[in-house]
Design brief:
Chain B: Pfam families: ABC_tran. Chain B: InterPro entries: AAA+_ATPase, ABC_transporter-like_ATP-bd, ABC_transporter-like_CS, ABC_transporter_ATP-bind, P-loop_NTPase. Chain B: It is a peripheral membrane protein. Chain B: This is ABC transporter ATP-binding protein. The structure holds 2 protein chains of 2 kinds. By secondary structure, chain A is an all-alpha fold. Helices cover 75% and strands 2% of the residues of chain A. Chain A has a two-stranded antiparallel sheet. Chain B contains 9 helices and 10 strands. Chain B has a 6-stranded mixed beta sheet, with helices on both faces. In chain B, strands 2-1-4-5 form a 4-stranded antiparallel beta sheet, with helices on one face. In chain B, a hairpin with a 2-residue loop joins strand 9 and strand 10. Chain B is globular, with a radius of gyration of 19 Å. The chains are: A mainly alpha, B alpha/beta.
Chain lengths: 302, 260
């Protein structure tokens, strides 16, 4: 039981990454590699700030700002520097590796042992085990999702969406697509930084290598959400990312129960994502839709 | 043709180049001069490579000019950005895919375009408040079913519906200048003819100032009050008013023979 609660808590905390990646990968159509650097950056900033006596909320906010600044650099490289999308992200991600070590004072792992984190709250301590991460995760992801849903309904949010949907047309109606791209990258990487801060506080440490493979985890939650829930509106899709993230953690739990260890997780995450991405091809090849329809629909739809 | 019309846009001695500064440099517009007056409905003819699209891209700001000046009324806009020019300029492209956002609905597209050239703020968009107006607007482009599909993603529309929508989006907030870049060329003959008629009706009714590139001599003769022919980056022929009305296809064809 506590394993399931733990998975739900982890799913909610990691959902911040899925939602952030949804903004760039899905809405903006921008495969942003920066996130593998921003995530440990957020962790490093928060942990270092807390170690220097900052409050956990301030530290988490600093992590957001650091992430947003990183996103801005990627955005400038791409829009003003005309560096190809993937390369812009990889450059900034690589630079982050050094920066993160600098921030953590040269050590690759900094512990939060004995420090006050966002999870050290008295009320949270009275809850059963793992319920603290469920509650914090739920509050954070709800606030982020609601803010994003409202934002996407504003005129600025619509201009952001159309930039990803049809850049030419967006320009032709007077939208500065460069600014929209930079804004999206800043918000997305800001949320990733915040996610890094939360997960580091939850783990009790920051590690320079904690960013490895997180793009796949975040994408997996997006894709699992899409595969499981099918056709949805934009708002529903945002919520589906969180549910996908929780489902991903369940799959992870299952895999670990089967006897694999955590070192295998990157391989397994990649496998899960690859399978989900290939599902449409499988169903085409196996005529799954046709077979399924035959059972319930009339002779031929056309 | 009234003589009181004011110059709206003036292109003075415009030179544009591609691959400027490299050995592959090619001059496209060669010291081109064109003055567009308020209310002009100009059809633009010219063979491939004559510079028609370059002319449009120069006016819209997509292509920087190498030399020369562009003036909107008395204001120099030669170096104004693409986004800023959309405050007075609207454009319909040839490719139905280019003018609309595929994953957004018809109504969403219309709402986005209704703010052409304006600052986008954090104000809520209030899509529902606009639905009645959009229904009316799309119904004005009758008999293509667009008004029943306001909540359909535009990727699910036919090419004709998309171009009709693109045209509505370009004109719903009245532009000072409308650029139509062969906007009916990708459609089947019947749909194309229908959209042309609707275009003509709206442009003349609202007295829009409009440049329309076309490859159909018949359309170029039938519509508009002025006709220009581009060749090798210059305007080789420019007729208006009664003179244009008297122009025939034969005369036009024999003119084309002289420039080739």
């Amino acid at each position: 039981m506590s394993m399931i609660v733990s998975s739900i808590g982890q799913g909610l905390l990691w959902a911040t990454l899925g939602v952030a990646l949804f903004l760039t990968f899905r809405i903006l159509d921008f495969p942003d590699m920066t996130v593998e650097g921003t995530f440990p950056l957020g962790a490093a900033v928060a942990v270092t700030a807390i170690a220097h006596g900052a409050g956990p909320l301030t530290a988490s906010l600093l992590a957001f700002v650091a992430g947003a600044a990183t996103g801005l650099v990627t955005g400038l490289l791409y829009t003003k520097g005309k560096v190809p999308i993937l390369l812009a992200g990889i450059l900034v991600m690589t630079a982050c590796l050094s920066i993160n070590l600098r921030i953590m004072g040269g050590s690759s792992n900094v512990s939060l042992l004995g420090k006050t984190t966002i999870f050290s709250n008295h009320f949270l301590q009275t809850l059963p085990k793992y319920f603290d991460s469920v509650l914090i995760g739920l509050v954070v992801i709800t606030v982020i999702t609601v803010l994003l849903i409202v934002f996407l309904q504003t005129n600025l949010g619509q201009a952001f969406i159309v930039t990803g949907d049809n850049r030419e047309m967006a320009r032709s109606i007077g939208i500065n697509t460069d600014n929209m791209t930079m804004m999206g990258l800043m918000v997305s990487n800001g949320i990733i930084g915040l996610g890094g801060a939360l997960i580091a506080q939850n783990n009790g440490y920051a590690d320079v290598s904690m960013g490895i493979g997180i793009i796949v985890i975040a994408l997996a939650s997006i894709i699992i959400g899409e595969v499981v829930f099918g056709e949805l509106t934009l708002n529903q899709r945002l919520v589906a990312v969180t549910l996908g993230s929780i489902l991903y953690q369940f799959v992870r739990l299952l895999v670990l129960q089967l006897g694999f260890n955590t070192n295998d997780m990157n391989l397994l995450s990649a496998l899960i994502l690859a399978i989900c991405l290939m599902l449409p091809q499988f169903s085409k090849a196996l005529h799954l839709n046709h077979v399924l329809k035959k059972g319930v629909a009339r002779y031929d739809e056309n | 043709m009234t003589k009181t019309n004011q110059p709206l846009l003036a292109l003075n001695d415009i030179v544009t180049k591609v691959n400027g500064g490299t050995p592959n440099e090619v001059m496209i517009l060669k010291h081109l001069n064109l003055t567009i007056y308020d209310g002009d409905f100009i059809t633009v003819l010219g063979s491939n490579g004559a510079g028609k699209s370059t002319l449009f891209n120069t006016i819209s700001g997509e292509l920087p000019v190498a030399s020369g000046q562009i003036k909107l009324r008395e204001k120099d806009i030669t170096h104004l950005s693409v986004e800023k020019r959309t405050a007075f300029l609207a454009r319909v492209f040839q490719d139905p895919k280019m003018g609309t956002a595929p994953r957004m609905t018809v109504a969403e597209n219309l709402l986005l375009a209704s703010q052409r050239g304006k600052r986008r703020t954090l104000r809520l968009r209030h899509l529902k408040q606009h639905m009645a107006h959009f229904k009316q607007l799309t119904a004005s482009m009758d008999n293509n079913g667009l008004s029943d599909r306001l909540n359909t993603a535009t990727e699910n529309l036919s090419g004709g519906q998309r171009q009709a929508l693109s045209f509505l989006m370009a004109t719903e907030q009245r532009p000072d200048l409308l650029l139509l870049d062969e906007h009916t060329a990708a459609l089947d003959p019947k749909t194309s003819e229908q959209l042309m008629a609707q275009t003509n009706q709206r442009v003349t009714q609202e007295k829009l100032t409009c440049l329309m590139i076309t490859h159909h001599l018949d359309d170029a003769l039938k519509y508009g009050n002025r006709l220009i022919v581009l060749d090798q980056g210059q305007i080789k022929y420019d007729v208006r008013g009664a003179e244009k009305a008297a122009l025939t296809k034969e005369k036009l064809l024999s003119f084309f023979d002289t420039i080739e």
